């Protein structure tokens, strides 16, 4: 299916997406899940091959309730997907932002504020030519919205040579910690500095490649300003 | 063993740490591996439980050639480690930094500059009281060097209640992409802006909790300045 299904307003809560602990940190609203995904530059994917767990960081993009990832065709992951056949390879997919250090008076209450999305499901290789071209646009526009229109698109040969894989967002949920300190009453009078140190990712000045004649395009200038 | 083994100057290259592709991006020097780990606020860990791959983001710290991770005692990961027994639970551990967007003239040559460390090995629960206390110091000083001395240390009961786990860095390597564009000769004349957009993580102004009387400590002011 070339075009991804639309996401529901709220993703279904399932056994796999209901943790044993800290359920108050879970979020199932699609807009929360999608915002966490859309803000990230890379994801990590977990899979089992030769009886061992593996992990891989990779570039990705979201199309509705589908995620596309780019994996080298010669990688262990690509091989494992091929061996898994038509049902796809079971994977676990994560995107996480570290938003703040939470420095408490007591060692045990130190924490990180974070936003995370975890999805489970079968990963399948994209082979249909129209979906390959669409998937590549999704990956590029995920980096910088508008980018796919300002490049030479992949020809069908290129698109087929590189590994594009898709995961449907069905078993998916977000987990967030956004609050300040949670300390034991007895520790509040201790003479230690305590508080929150915010973190964020910023973009520096774009560095044009040698021989580039066009000025910095408007969509990229806007994106850089938004991330400065 | 309470104190972690010293790391070798260069980690051994093994079958598990030699990829099928892009071998020129691999780094085995301990100082490269450690710098990537020490700069990160969180890691992702991959494990297999009930026949399915799982992934989890978590806080961590490094002590020589050992990594400590903090996991809720009630989590699936803690349960899986308990079930695995004395040999530990096989895991795959990753830390990744996205350092720059690489925007090429052709869609296919878009990339990310990144630095990543991946380690494989058995995860074991820390139970020895001295190592629990030491491990907690490592976790705190990983967030901000010097932090562990400016907190109320965990008492033994607290340390035993929360889940601290250790992974020895033996099967470990870094993978890095740091260069600019790699484009096809035929695309160099295309009229698209192309170049690199650097990314970095910055810390904002520390926000003290209500009722904190000490001034911002020097180690934290220095750390914040370094990350601004």
TrEMBL record, chains A, B:
InterPro entries: Pyridox_Oxase-rel, Split_barrel_FMN-bd. It comes from the Bacteria. This is Pyridoxamine 5'-phosphate oxidase family protein. The lineage of its organism: Bacteria, Bacillati, Actinomycetota, Actinomycetes, Kitasatosporales.
């Amino acid at each position: 299916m070339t075009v991804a299904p639309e996401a529901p307003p709220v993703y279904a809560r399932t056994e796999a997406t209901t943790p044993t602990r800290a359920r108050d940190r879970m979020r199932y609203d699609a807009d929360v899940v999608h915002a966490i995904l859309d803000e990230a530059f890379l994801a990590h994917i977990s899979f089992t091959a030769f009886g061992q767990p593996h992990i891989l960081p990779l570039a990705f993009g979201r199309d509705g309730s589908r995620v596309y990832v780019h994996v080298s065709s010669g990688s262990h992951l690509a091989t494992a997907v091929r061996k898994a056949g038509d049902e796809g390879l079971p994977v676990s997919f994560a995107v996480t932002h570290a938003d703040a250090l939470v420095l408490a008076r007591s060692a045990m209450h130190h924490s990180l504020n974070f936003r995370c999305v975890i999805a489970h499901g079968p990963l399948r290789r994209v082979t249909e030519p129209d979906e390959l071209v669409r998937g590549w646009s999704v990956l590029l526009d995920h980096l910088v919205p508008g980018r796919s229109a300002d490049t030479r698109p992949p020809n069908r040969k290129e698109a087929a040579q590189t590994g594009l894989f898709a995961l449907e967002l069905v078993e998916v949920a977000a987990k967030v910690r956004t609050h300040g300190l949670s300390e034991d009453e007895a520790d509040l009078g201790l003479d230690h500095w305590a508080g929150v140190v915010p973190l964020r990712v910023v973009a520096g000045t774009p560095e044009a490649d040698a021989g580039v004649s066009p000025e910095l395009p408007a969509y990229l200038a806007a994106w850089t300003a938004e991330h400065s």
